[in-house]
Amino acid sequence: MEYEEPKFFHVMQYAAAADGDVIDMVSGNPDWEPPAALREALRDYADLSPDAFQYPPSEGLRELREAIATRRGVDLDSVIVTNGTGEANYLAMARAFDRDAGDEALLTDPVYPYYPGKVSMLGGTSTLVPTERDGGLDVDAIAAAASDETALIALNTPNNPTGAVYDLDAIRAVVSVAERVDALVLVDEVYDHFDLSGEFESALTLDSDRVIVTSGFSKSMAITGFRVGYGVFPDGHVSAAKTRHMLVNVAGARPSQYAVTHALAETDPEYYADARDLLADRVDAFTDALDAAGAEYSRPEGAFYVLARFDDFPGTMANVKRLIDEVGVAGMPGEAFGHARGDWIRFALVTPRATEAAERLADHFGG
Amino acid sequence: MEYEEPKFFHVMQYAAAADGDVIDMVSGNPDWEPPAALREALRDYADLSPDAFQYPPSEGLRELREAIATRRGVDLDSVIVTNGTGEANYLAMARAFDRDAGDEALLTDPVYPYYPGKVSMLGGTSTLVPTERDGGLDVDAIAAAASDETALIALNTPNNPTGAVYDLDAIRAVVSVAERVDALVLVDEVYDHFDLSGEFESALTLDSDRVIVTSGFSKSMAITGFRVGYGVFPDGHVSAAKTRHMLVNVAGARPSQYAVTHALAETDPEYYADARDLLADRVDAFTDALDAAGAEYSRPEGAFYVLARFDDFPGTMANVKRLIDEVGVAGMPGEAFGHARGDWIRFALVTPRATEAAERLADHFGG
């Protein structure tokens, strides 16, 4: 599969150029407030002495790494602060391929389009393995697809775009597959604060030397533009990942890391709970409307998205454009996420107008 | 050559652990104030609405790219804002190798250690080509070394570590060599604001489709920790570089880009002139002391560094440690910069104690 990122831009540009009022359910940018402590820390940072404006340690500010290590229950040495979760995923994938253990990546289908793009850039090949109808992991299919060529198995939970939260037992079974074929397992947990099921368990609890876990603060603190993510790498892989991080980026941005460090220390659990509750309310409103519209969907267990399928209205780019023009709602065509969900449309719920959009869809398809 | 970065850490850790008072002339971090407008912009940013905290465009904030394009006299489309000049260099090198035009990089010797590290990470091989004794480009040596295997020729002017400012005619001749062997020329101009010779001319004036110019604001605004750099890529290469940038980093940090954008618009030329004058004064004081110490050196035409050679005191790691313990001055061993200057020591002048360090060296070696 080609790197599909331009489809995002294509849809967003089409929506921006539309005549009528269009509700943007394309992008995954949170629309709510960042923590107050984050704003305050930025103000404080602006007044620090010049030495505080120079390179942070390449692997990230020590206080931030310590806070991450404590919260995630891992060794400080295993934590690399990266330029967003995107860089952490890149470092993890590069490490998987650099081991001379094959050049195939197994990715779930539907897939977050950046994953096959990164794999291809790193000289690897992607094999898409369909998930269950509800988005759950199909461990048997992954086991059947795995071979000596498999260097990497990449999982994302809570999942973009399906909203699935994977069972820890299923992830454990995938790790066993990885052990059999000498692959690494990347588990991208960037939506970990948006578990609506109450059943999310981090793959870090498996304590496996095959598992690299990535996450970040883009979603949990509503700061996708700050670019603060991290990877937790097992002993045998952290050194190579640190070297690549240094050679690509030298270090991440210190104002961002400083602000996140303080926000992490000074933000109450209520902040995260409120954002999660807001999202849960939107899921309720949106799925009620999907019921009224007679659409098929899986109720998201986490993350920001709902995948929906309308009768006789496959999620092609052409139909996504019709939805923009005729209904005033912009979603992402399912074909952007691999092969398995070409009939579906992804709606991102990170807009205050999610309920309004739901009503428009219910009126249009349910009418 | 191996990636030599750990030597920096080794020297800095040794200096930090030393008993006596040690003047740090190892790191290249500016020690002066950033522009006032940069601090002010950070404060303003802290109060913006949540949408200003989300992803900037992948290639950078448009206002920042426009300001760069205008100042450098290039097309807006050719400018990619990166996570520091380091990432811009990585993108440029990756592009050179991705063309299937060979896997060799010609690097000048002495060399900035990140360059061979990046080349090696990208699967290339580095050939070090010695410069002239004064650090000037040896075009004939580069022409002799170039072959069909050469994919990249990397130059840095003003140069770290030699302080040389390359003649534009010499760079033009290197570009001709690159044309002959189908190589790209990377010209890293991150020290462009610290031209002490008055003769620096950007390689952008060559308007060559073989030349990628990189630079950034780390040095010119004294903000190495903000990670805002850029690359100017010719038509045939900018799209591939943008894709790699997006797949590795998604985007750079928006608070940093916002602050730099405003500082660029609102900072008087005097700010840059003052920093340059400060550095020139330090060069005077430091080279006077080197004269008193009977050392060989080339007076830097630009950048932050002086390479010096003391009689019967080659710049080995052991001697660098003796200098820390016995003289209280920490420099970088010449062996960290390739093969050509193993007898030399690099001193960074970005400390308010540069004059004091000079006196210590004069007392020790001149006594």
TrEMBL record, chains A, B:
| Cofactor(s) named in the record | pyridoxal 5'-phosphate
- State if NAD is listed as a keyword: no
Provide the alphabetized UniProt keywords. Answer: Aminotransferase, Pyridoxal phosphate, Transferase
Positions in coiled-coil regions: none
| UniProt-listed Enzyme Commission number(s) | 2.6.1.-
Domain spans labelled Aminotransferase class I/classII large: 21-354
Please name the GO terms that the record assigns under molecular function: transaminase activity
Q: Which PANTHER family does this chain map to?
A: AMINOTRANSFERASE, ASPARTATE AMINOTRANSFERASE
Q: Assembly and interactions?
A: Homodimer.
Q: What is this protein called?
A: Aminotransferase
| Species whose genome carries this gene | Halorubrum laminariae
